Amino acid sequence: MKSPTRRDSTSSITSTGSRSSSSRAAPRPAGHVILDGQIGTLNPVEVRDATPGTGKGLFATQAIPRHALLFAEEPLLFAPRGGDRVSNHRVRQLLEALDRLPPRRRAAFQSLYASPAQLESVSDGDRTRMRNWYMDVKGLTDRALDEAMASGLAALAAYRTNNVAVLDYDDPARPEGVIVGGVVYSVFSRINHACAPNAAFFYLGVRSQRLGVRALRDIAPGEQVFVSYLGEKAGRELTREQRQEGLATWGFECACDACMKEAQAEAAAKENKGVGK
C-alpha cells in the first residue's frame, strides 16, 4: 500500500469507542482469517508485483462476485500514537512494539512498502530519540548503531506509510475522537489506492481491530484489487484536486482511471473556454 488523511499517513480509521458504525461485531468468517500475513486457500486473492512504481498489489485469482468477502486479517502490529501525527515521544514506543514482534511477524512488517517521502520527513528530534534508544536500551555503538539506525528509520517510514489510525471517543472534550494508536496489517497494506475502488474495508468488531475487505462490484480473475485510502465516498464527494492533496502525504500523485478521466475533462473544458474567448 502506498502511503496520506488517514489523518497523517493512515489509510483509514478504526475506533476503540462506541460511536463507530462498525462497532457491531460481524461474525468471524471461518477459514478466511489471515494470521501473520498468511492467506488461506479459501481466499481468492494473492499478493504479487503490480505495475512499475506501485510495488506489490493484491490480485484476484478467480472471479469474485459483488459483496463477497476477499479476506479478513488480524493486526500485524499496534503501536501507541499521539496527536494527528506520530509524535516525537512515541518513537520509543514504536521501537519497543517492533522489538516485541516474533521473527515471522517482524519479517512481514519489514517487507512492507515504505514511502521515500515518509523517510525524508523524519525529524532530527525523531532521529535523536531513535539513536538514544538504540544506545541506552540495546547498548549499540559504532557500526552496529549505524546499521540499527538505518533499519529503524526504514521501519518508522513503513509504519507511517501503512498504519491505520485507532480513535478513542472517551474524551468528552474531543467528540471527534483522539488518535491513540496505529495498526499495521500484512495483506491489507499491500492493496493499492484508486479513487473509484472495486473493494472496501470494514472492521469485524472494533476492539479486536480485525479487518475485512469485501468486493464493491464483480472482480474478474487477474484483476487488481483497489480500495480508496480516503474513504469509499471520496471519489464522489471530493474534487480531483482535493483528493490529490490528501494523497500527497503518501508521496505519490494518483493516476487512477477516475483521476485521468477527470483530468482530461478539465483540460478539455479549459481548451473550450480558451476557444470561446
UniProtKB/TrEMBL annotation:
InterPro entries on file: SET_dom, SET_dom_sf, SET_domain_protein
Residues covered by region (Disordered): 1-29
SMART domains xref list: SET (SM00317)
Residues of the SET domain: 43-230
Biased composition (Low complexity): 10-24
PANTHER family cross-referenced by the UniProt entry: SET DOMAIN-CONTAINING PROTEIN 5
Protein name: SET domain-containing protein
